[in-house]
Every structure is written in C-alpha cells, then in structure tokens.
Fold these 2 entries.
Entry 1:
Amino acid sequence: MLDFIKSSREENIYYGDIFKLDGKGFLVFGSGKTQAMREAVNESANPENEIALDMACITKENDKVFGHFEMPIRGKGIEDPIKNKIQIHYFINMLQEKSTKEIFKTSTPAIVEVEYNDFIHLSGFNIGFSTDMLENPLKTNPKLRVEKFKQLTEGTLIKCYAIPWMNSEIEKGQLVRNYFYENIN
C-alpha cells in the first residue's frame, strides 16, 4: 500500500505548461499551448526543455518567479519536485480564435507584448481553473486563485505576451521560436 503526502504548495499549482527556450523559462497558458511549445522548443531533440504539463507550480523568491511540475499529492519517499524548479522569464497566453480576432486587427500573425493586468484578464480560465474537488475555497474559487497568482507574480520583471490563434500548432510553434530567438538574446 502506498502512502501519499499532500503538496505544501497545492494552492500554487495552475493549469499551465512550463517550457525552457534558449535557457529562458516560459509559463504558458491558453489554446494549443503544449503542442505549439513542443514545436517551439524542438522537444523531440531535447526533451529537457519540457518542464511541466498542465500542473505548473509557481513560487516566488524575492523578485523572481520560479516554476516546476508538481501534483497536489505524491507518494511518500518521492523527492520534493521543487528541486527541479527553473526561473520563469516570460508569461505567454495562446489566444483562442475569438480573442485573436478581437485583439489583432491584422491578418498577419504577430506576437504582442501585453501589460501584466491584460495578461491576467486573458488568462483567467487557466489561472482560475482547478481540478481539486475538495472544499478549500482558495483552491476552487477562481477569484481567490487569481489573487494568489498575483501574490506570486506581481511586481516581478516578467514580460507578458499574447500569441495569436493559428490553424496549426506547428506554425504557431515556429512563430514563437522565431520571435523569441530573435528577441531574447
């Protein structure tokens, strides 16, 4: 029989992915996030660039945000996953088709930097979402989850971006890779 322990950071786990591109950490929310980012980081060539899928745990140290994969519970004797944390440098929201049409007035796919509060608004579903069926309001109330996210990320130097909807996650991934390789060095 396996014994389990609860994560001490279960309120910090969000429905997002964490990837590393050219040594920089990305917290990714939105539509088609996993497939597009796998293409962007060329995951098949270097699987170490895929840090967390759907269970992105966020922590803050001083003015820096870190992320790693963590589930709300783990088996006793399993090492604390925070040892695999990476610094997050960028927040990305991959928009749905409707949001793309509202935000982008051009038909040319482009990545745009957005203000922190706009990113929070665009990412409301991912930040507010919880699979936890327990009655802990902080884990199941979307407004409280947004407040916790702000507590963990506000006042940091993380840049926020909106990625337009595209018909192909491959094309979206290539757009992300090209944009950030050109702009992060």
Note: Residues 4-183 form a domain with the Rossmann fold fold (CATH 3.40.50).
Entry 2:
Amino acid sequence: MYFNDVDDIDVLFARLEREDPPSGMTAGVLAAVAERARRRRRIGIAVFILALTVATLLAFLVGHELRASGVLDLITIELQSADLVQAAPLDLAKGLAENVPWVPTGLVVVSLAAAARALPVLAAPAVRFGSRRMGR
C-alpha cells in the first residue's frame, strides 16, 4: 500500500460535514466553568482559613506542653553550652525526643502543609466569565 492510495477511511472523512454546535452551548459551558472556578476558590479559602486556625491553636498547645515538660529549658541549656552538646549529644537528643509532644506537633505540620497546598488557589487570579471586558 502506498501513501497516495485512497482507502475507505479517506472517503468517509471527505464526506464529513461540519455541524454547528447547539444554540446556547457556549454560554452553558462558560457558566459551568465559571461556577466550578468559584466553587474551587471558595473551598481553597475555607481550607486555608481552617488549616491556619488549627495550626495556630495546636501550636499554642504544643508551646504550653514544651514549657511544662521542660523541653524549652533543655533547648536553652543546649544552645548556651556547646561543651554539653559535644559531651553527650545522644543523651540530649534522647531527652528531647522523649518529651516532645509528637502528635500535636505532627498535626501542626499537617495543618501548615494543608495551608501551603491551598495557597496556589488563593494566588490565582479570580476569572470572571461573561464580563463586559471579555469581548474587548
């Protein structure tokens, strides 16, 4: 078979005629796209606000637990005494690991990650379909 031969598919494509889309289809598609964009933006704003609120409350709780358990005092001692860190680094790390409230700390990290994930939705410009400027 050569490339210049005409087969049944070529004949069928040659007989195709252009059909106009149904009336109002463009407006319907633009309205659906605009509604989806508005819904996505509302969800992004809600996720961002909720995640920051949860992260703030949990960070406050973690701070109180760190103060009550003495971890902040241990960190202060480690920062002030480099000799102590060099003498027993594993013991100091073990003392920190045993007293850090890991579950709330992990939840703070997850909340901040959710807020960071919602940021691109907030940073994207709000598109207004069907406005007067669109036709210009």
Note: The chain has one domain: 23-122.
